[in-house]
Write a structure and sequence with these properties.
Distance between the termini of chain B: 45 Å
Oligomer: heterodimer
Number of strands of chain B: 5
Number of domains of chain B: 1
Order of helices and strands of chain B: HEEEEEH
Structural class of chain A: mainly alpha
Shape of chain B: elongated
Largest sheet of chain A: 2 strands, antiparallel
Shape of chain A: globular
Strand content of chain A: under 5%
Structural class of chain B: alpha+beta
Largest sheet of chain B: 5 strands, antiparallel
Radius of gyration of chain B: 23 Å
Strand content of chain B: 15-25%
Number of helices of chain B: 2
Number of strands of chain A: 2
Strand order of the largest sheet of chain B: 1-2-3-4-5
Largest interface: A-B, 28 and 23 residues
Helix content of chain A: 55-70%
Radius of gyration of chain A: 19 Å
Chain lengths: ~230, ~210
């Protein structure tokens, strides 16, 4: 395994195969908790940790696991990891845990995690699996934060509200720009609009890139490179 | 699958289950004390705002009294009362009650009452009211809940414990009428209950911790 490959695995999760933007996996937490940047960050980090460790464990045990029992074993591993992360959050970030509520235990049902175990970690060595977990997890976390920040900015006209849930200390109500924002962004439909905008933006950037690359490189070469 | 492979597969599954259980158990052991301390601190912290201007000693959360339904307090779930003492004399009581008639689901209210029956503070613990409209009952979103501080049954009289639009003395919220009406009714009924049962509340033994 070369380091170039590892970086490829990291990048694929961040952009090319982003679990939220391209695979559209794990939408339930993505839509539900992204009302603020801090909430998105909290769930993003929790998902990143679970995904990285579950990829590592699945990859470690892949030689002993018969295909017939792989799904129960993935569920076991993921459920235990999520329980551990939940306990750690409760101990270290009690207010953040309260704010995210049921969505931390619900990481178990995030299909992005089972998908990575099945598609990637069960067929690749541990180094690549960890890189893939970090890449996918970070891609998901960054998307959650971006949508959280967008909805918070539009909906509440503030940013970084309740930052104290991560750092501790006094209640911090965020940097406010106006008295009130466009309420729609905070309500559930706002989540769908924001996700749609994010997907559209990604496709737009990809298309621009393809066009500019296509102009300088013949088709056959491009395919070869890939 | 052959029989011995089934057996081997079962062993693999059992071993991984054992490892996972050990992992969770270890994390649980490492975090249990901090989680308990956090929960207690959070509870004490969340009770404090409803006790403005009350001097007390000890931990409020240790004097918990759980009143299982049916009871005369608002809500049809268990009502929780915390008794507040200073030098073993009762000074105030905190009620956690539920208003059933919110706009979207129950509203959990924390109400502090001093021993004479005057409100020392109201906070909304939990609700699902519309963001931007009904959620102004939260103390962080508007001053609405502060108007109850210093009021009691008699100030104003029971009949004037209503929103201004309903012929009472209390401010309403723009864009929401069901929500504040529900909260106000729950506060009024809790105060009436406190006036009627004051002595039993302070004399009752603290409820066991439910674990």
């Amino acid at each position: 395994m070369t380091s170039g490959n590892l970086i490829d695995h990291l990048q694929s999760g961040l952009w090319k195969d982003n679990p939220g933007l391209v695979q559209l996996l794990g939408l339930c937490p993505l839509l539900a908790v992204t009302t603020t940047l801090v909430n998105g960050f909290g769930l993003g980090i929790a998902t990143l940790l679970v995904l990285t460790f579950s990829n590592a464990l699945v990859s470690l045990t892949r030689r002993w696991i018969r295909p017939e029992i792989r799904i129960p074993i993935y569920v076991l591993i993921i459920a235990s990891l999520v329980t551990c992360i939940e306990l750690i959050f409760k101990a270290c970030f009690p207010t953040l845990d309260r704010s995210l509520g049921i969505f931390i235990p619900l990481i178990v049902t995030n299909c992005a995690i089972v998908a990575r175990a099945e598609i990637f970690a069960s067929r690749n060595p541990i180094g690549a699996s960890i890189a893939d977990g970090i890449g996918m997890g970070a891609g998901f976390a960054l998307l959650l934060m971006a949508i959280g920040a967008f909805r918070e900015l539009v909906g509440q006209a503030s940013i970084l509200s309740r930052l104290d849930m991560i750092t501790g200390g006094e209640t911090f109500n965020g940097i406010s720009f106006a008295d009130s924002g466009l309420l729609l962004a905070i309500l559930p439909p706002g989540a769908f609009f924001s996700l749609a905008l994010a997907v559209a933006l990604k496709n737009h950037i990809d298309r621009k890139r393809r066009i500019s690359r296509g102009a300088t490189m013949p088709r056959s070469l491009r395919q070869h490179r890939k | 699958m052959k029989e011995h492979t089934v057996f081997k597969t079962g062993i693999t599954l059992a071993m991984i289950a054992a490892i996972c259980t050990a992992l969770v158990a270890a994390t649980f052991q490492m975090t249990i004390d901090r989680i308990a301390a956090n929960e207690k601190a959070l509870l004490e912290q969340s009770l404090q705002p409803a006790l403005s201007g009350v001097f007390y000693d000890g931990d409020v959360s240790e004097s918990r009294l759980v009143i299982p339904p049916p009871h005369e307090l608002p809500g049809n779930d268990a009502a929780i009362i915390y008794r507040v003492f200073a030098a073993n004399e009762p000074v105030a009581a905190l009620f956690a009650v539920t208003a059933r008639d919110g706009f979207s689901g129950p509203i959990r209210i924390l109400l502090g009452v001093d021993v004479s029956g005057t409100v020392t503070g109201v906070r909304i613990l939990q609700h699902r009211e519309t963001p931007g409209l009904g959620d102004k009952i939260e103390s962080s979103r508007s001053d609405w809940v502060f108007q109850f501080e210093g009021r009691s049954i008699g100030n104003p009289t029971v009949t004037a414990w209503a929103l201004k639009g309903d012929g009472g003395e209390f401010d309403q919220l723009t864009g929401a009428s069901v929500t504040p009406r529900a909260v106000l009714k729950a506060i009024r009924n809790t105060l009436l209950y406190f006036d009627a049962h004051r002595d039993e509340i302070f004399l009752a033994e603290a409820s066991e911790e439910d674990k």
